[in-house]
Amino acid sequence: MKIAKLLYIPVSFLLLTIRVAAFSPLSLSIEELTESLGGKIGRARAAWDCYRLGVDPQIFYGQEPDASIDASVTIRFPLIQESSSRKDIYKLLPSRRRNQGLGVPAVKNLALLTPGGIEESIGTISHLTRAKDGTTKLLIKLAADGLEVETVIIPWKERSTVCISSQVGCRQGCTFCATGRMGRLRSLTVDEILVQVFLAQKVCRVIDIVPVDGVVFMGMGEPADNAESV
Fold this sequence. Notes:
Layout (H helix, E strand, L loop, with lengths): L1 H6 L22 H8 L3 H11 L5 H4 L10 H4 L11 H7 L11 H10 L4 H4 L1 E8 L5 E7 L5 E9 L2 E5 L3 E3 L8 H5 L1 E4 L2 H17 L5 E5 L14
Parallel strand pairs: 4-7
Antiparallel strand pairs: 1-2, 2-3, 3-4, 5-6
């Protein structure tokens, strides 16, 4: 999938900030995730197959009820069907994963990397709106300090593009831009950038938008001012 190539960033380029998780599974290479989970590389690949769908494997393979998997989306769209069940999500996974689990030790290891899961540890959806043309705007609340950034899903025929943010605010001061008038509050970490794509994929799957196949840095912030994380 193209997005995987676009978003792979070596851990050595992580921007470490106080109270922000430095090494979540989203920013680990497949080899590093394999080591973190223990066992063979298949467990790490199974976890990544979930992340590509916007599914947190820590919750999916854990003991939480089905409704908790996509709660951050379904709670804001009460008219859509119930959250995808595990049975439905298994059908979206590659066939070789459908009879494969992570195992209790690996799930516990994920919990050490992201206590409470991806959304509780990095960022979750605080507001979500959808226009008639399908354009969907997400306001994402960052777990580190409660600040929020904007992410936009733009569907087009057989693919969607997600427009993501690189900073909270911006120091460029463009007069036509509301973000510029905020000033720069701080830059995002790699994980905070990647979680926007993770949540966009979740939204696409749950409310039936074509999956994300491209990423652009046209949200909040100036990417060149956060080059290490971008």
